[in-house]
Amino acid sequence: MGEYFGVICSLVVTLLLASYATACDRCVHQSKVSFFSKPQPPLLSGSCGYGSLAIGFNEGRLAAASPSIYKDGAACGACFQIRCKDERICSKEGTKVLVSDRNDYDNKTDFVVSSRAFTAMAKKGIMAQQILKLGLADVEYKRVACDEYKNKNLGLRVEESSQKPNYLAVKLLYQGGQTEVVAMDVAQVGSSNWNYMSRKYGAVWDTSRVPNGALQFRFVVTAGFDGKWYWAKSVLPSDWKNGSIYDSGLQITDIAQEGCSPCDDSTWKQSI
Questions:
Q1: The pTM is what?
Q2: pLDDT per residue over 54-82, tens digit each?
Q3: CATH number of the domain located at residue range(s) 29-144 in this protein
């Protein structure tokens, strides 16, 4: 199992260093953003698997991200600051969105957002209908930390499909920082016999090799130009229940670096 994690870490380092020449916290990207017109958009049943939990995320400012951003679910729960470039009706600050789905709806955009998120880009005094009339907005965006997770530890929700002792599926919640979980293992508390877990879809990881007793977990997340280990030494009790959310005791606050050209987002920092 040590070899497995060594390979994962090496892959993370290789992928990061292969394209990063200059260290930036996160690059500013140019794109377009559209929105869902329905009050209850598909985002609430999106491919991240959050379901009804998503209703309480980020005050409803949710987004479906393009496959290149979504990364097979690694970006689930990630936050992005998005600002519209139409200075007549859009504020310099823009708004923050949380990824809860993959954008398979509009291939002209990097994000399709909830109407609440779209209207939140407007200047004060601008009516919602004025900005909604844009339909498709030219924007710039960057990855940012999720402020609502500042006082929350990483949570693990045991999915209803879990069947003790043959199958375990957990959903990761409240991942802070600007990182992505790229590997996950589980073991009995006090044991060094780790079993790897696979990303089933979105924010859900699973394994058919479930240890007995109380369970601990370890993770590799992207951080800086490298991968970083996190070890949650006691998370699930021996009598873990389907549908319950368990506190990992960990707060992830790291930033994964990007290579930006040019690496200057000073105008962005001055406006948010």
A1: 0.85
A2: 888 999 899 999 999 999 999 999 999 99
A3: 2.40.40.10
